Amino acid sequence: MRQTKLEDFLELEEHNKELEKRIKVELEKNRKKDELLFRQAKMASMGEMLANISHQWRQPLMEITSLFLPIEAKLKMNLPIENEELQESITKLNDITKYMSSTIDDFRNFFSKDKEKMKFKILQQINSTINIINGGLKAHNIHLEIIIKKNPTILAYKNEYSQALINIINNAKDVLVQRKIVNPKIDIIIEEKDGLVITSIHDNAGGIKVKPIEKVFDPFFTYEKANGSGIGLFMSKLIIENNMNGKLEVENKEDGALFVISIPKL
Questions:
Q1: CA-based torsion, 106, 111, 112, 116: positive or negative
Q2: Taking Cα atoms as reference points, which of 213, 225, 223 lies closest to residue 250?
Q3: Residue 221's closest CA among 236, 243, 241, 206?
Q4: Are 201 and 80 in contact (CB under 8 A)?
Q5: Do 176 and 257 form a contact (C-beta atoms < 8 A)?
Q6: Mean pLDDT to the nearest integer, 236-256
Q7: Which residues sit opposite 32 in a β-bridge?
Q8: Angle, in degrees to the nearest 10, between helices 158-178 and 5-76
Q9: Interior angle at CA 181, CA 177 and CA 187, nearest 5
């Protein structure tokens, strides 16, 4: 017996409801998967951050030791210590401990759970980010230069922006080290164009060999990185494009790779 139009409508409505439920379930699964990947990326970053703390503090600790070695030697030989000499050492000690304290603040801020967009100057956040990873770059004699054409304010997630930047810089660092590049360098260029805040990260590691080049953003892609997790660049793209309404693109230049982060200006 043929169904009435009402029965057809009710059946279609039931089908739509079932389809809507399935879509919600799949969206929730994808959300949980993204959260898991994000936590994995954070844990991978934590290991690198601990290594960076040791790099960041090794030089200041050596400077503290060198400050008081002459004073200790004079004490042992019962030689007089001038007030000026002692005061100068104390001043330098204060400067060093302030630097070490600010480094800890940067690390603590990086791992804080801010999920609220806030206004911040792009250069200030980049400097804070570089302070976290600079020790690792110096350990491999990688020169990093920041070129400022504009210093606009953006509205975004500060720590997520930092993580995206760290992932890209660490990826460049790993390739520079892996390929044993002579005079390795990374340039960060900040500019503003067509209502967008643009952060470009350019290295001289010889470029990305895989084709299509966008494959580097695939999850678990670890080309040329024996110990990589393969989620760093994937997470960076997810952060910039899904959480900040921006764009993360990559291309090869003559001497290396160029990653470009574009975020709408406030």
A1: positive
A2: 213
A3: 236
A4: no
A5: no
A6: 90
A7: none
A8: 70
A9: 85
pLDDT tens column, 165-220: 988 998 899 899 999 999 999 999 999 998 899 999 999 999 998 889 988 888 76
- From CA 42, how far away is CA 28, in angstroms rounded? 21
DSSP state of 141: T
CB-based contacts of 173, cutoff 8 Å, min separation 6: 133, 136, 137, 140, 142, 186
How far, in Å, CA of 124 to CA of 121, rounded? 5
Tell me which amino acid residue 110 is. Answer: F
Distances (CA, A) of 88 to 76, 80, 224: 20, 15, 49
Residue 230: burial class (beta carbons within 10 Å; 0-12, 13-18, 19+): middle
C-alpha 235 chain-centroid distance: 10
pLDDT, one tens digit per residue, over 62-96 is 777 877 888 888 888 888 888 888 888 888 888 77
Tokens of 206: 């010889």
* HSE-CB for 13 with a 13 A CA cutoff: 6
Residue bearing tokens 């989620």: 231
The residue length of the chain stands at: 266
| Block residue for tokens 């879509």 | 23
Q: What is the DSSP letter of 255?
A: S
Q: What is the DSSP string of 9-29?
A: HHHHHHHHHHHHHHHHHHHHH
Largest Cα–Cα distance in the chain? 114
Let me know if 205 is exposed, middle or buried by CB neighbors in 10 A (0-12, 13-18, 19+).
buried
Backbone angles phi, psi at 250, to 5 degrees: -140, 145
